Each structure stands twice: as C-alpha cells, then as structure tokens.
Amino acid sequence: MELLQALQDRRSIRKYKDTPVGREAVEHLLEAARLAPSWKNQQCWRFLVVTDAAKREKILAGFGDDNPGKKGIAAAPVTIVVCADPAESGIENGIHYYVADTAMALEHLCLAATEMGLGTCWMGLFNEDLIRKGLGIPPTFRIVGITPLGYPDQDPKPRPRKQLNEIAYFEKWGEN
Ligand SMILES: Cc1cc2nc3c(=O)[nH]c(=O)nc-3n(C[C@H](O)[C@H](O)[C@H](O)COP(=O)(O)O)c2cc1C
C-alpha cells in the first residue's frame, strides 16, 4: 500500500473483532514506531503491549464511560500504552518535545497498522495516574497515548477536515 493510501484509509476504530493479532504483527508495528524522528534522536518513547485481560481491566478503569473509544479497548485483543520519559527529550520555547516525539512514533504505528488491515484509535482522554499505577509504569514516565489494536469491526466514513486554504498560507500569513 502506498503511504498516501494509508493516510487516506486510516480511521479511528472503536469497534473490533475478537480475532487475535499475533506477536509478529505487533512487532512489525513497533518497528514502524521505532523509526520515527525524535528530539536529538533520543527516542524517549516506550511501548507497553497489553493482551492480558486483567491488565486490560486496569487500563479500562482509567477511562470514563463517556469516552467513545473505551468500548474499542474492551473489545480489541491488544492495547498499546505509549509512554515517554520527558528527561530523554527536550523543552524549547516552552514546547515539551516528548509529546511530539511520542506522537510521531504512535502515528507511524497507526499508519503501519492501516497498511496491515488493522485498526487503531489514538486515545488521550484518560486518568494517567490510575493507569500508570495499575500497570506498574515507573512514575518518571508520562503516558502520552493509548491505542487499541485489532481487526476493525466497522468501516467509518472519513471525518471532515478543514480545507487547505484554512490551514496553509503561502508567503504571507493569511494568504493562499
Ligand atoms: C491526541 C488525540 C487524542 C484522542 N483521544 C481520543 C479519545 O480519548 N477517545 C476517542 O474515542 N478518540 C480520541 N481521539 C481520536 C479523534 O477523535 C479522531 O482522531 C478524530 O475525531 C478524527 O477522526 P479519524 O481519526 O477517524 O480521522 C484522539 C485523537 C488524538 C490525535
């Protein structure tokens, strides 16, 4: 699959089949994440892959029932908790780059998953402390994102995006 096709096909998937995802497939996705760029190439990210049902419950405890993606985590065979050590990244102009580093790695993973016919959903609305403690993640690590991973049981339409002329300017701010 061409990269552009994966960019066009990727959706946030919130319904999953219970078909298992093998370790080899997961490692392929982690390899895609590993290749992401990062602050001074310090690669502050860590990935915790969870398939154990009891551990999944610890993750679910950190999500509100009003989070539309929660059911996806409950159904998907795999959950990936994407963490970062801020000390392995930098701050410039007040921007904490561990978030950018980790987001890029997670998006690499999501796009590679699309290519393999797998679904993901970048999730950021959760109780970080509860999940960190529940999974035994060291306190020095931040949880930047969590995604379910599995075979989609839905085919959502593309969500709308702003038009290019609303978000991109040429030569002068505000001009297309
Ligand atoms: C940083 C971030 C946090 C998100 N958090 C959640 C979340 O907690 N729950 C959820 O269901 N979706 C979450 N999403 C998914 C977005 O709602 C989704 O990407 C957006 O609506 C566009 O839809 P699409 O991904 O299918 O193109 C998050 C996405 C991002 C990038």
From TrEMBL:
Q: Which GO terms describe its molecular function?
A: oxidoreductase activity
Q: Do you know which CDD domains this protein is assigned to?
A: nitroreductase (cd02139)
Organism domain of life: Bacteria
- What region holds the Nitroreductase domain? 8-151
Q: Mind telling me which InterPro entries this protein's record contains?
A: Nitroreductase, Nitroreductase-like
Q: Recite the UniProt keywords alphabetically.
A: Oxidoreductase
Q: Which PANTHER family match?
A: NAD(P)H NITROREDUCTASE YDGI-RELATED, NADH DEHYDROGENASE_NAD(P)H NITROREDUCTASE XCC3605-RELATED
Record's family? Belongs to the nitroreductase family.
Its recorded name reads Nitroreductase
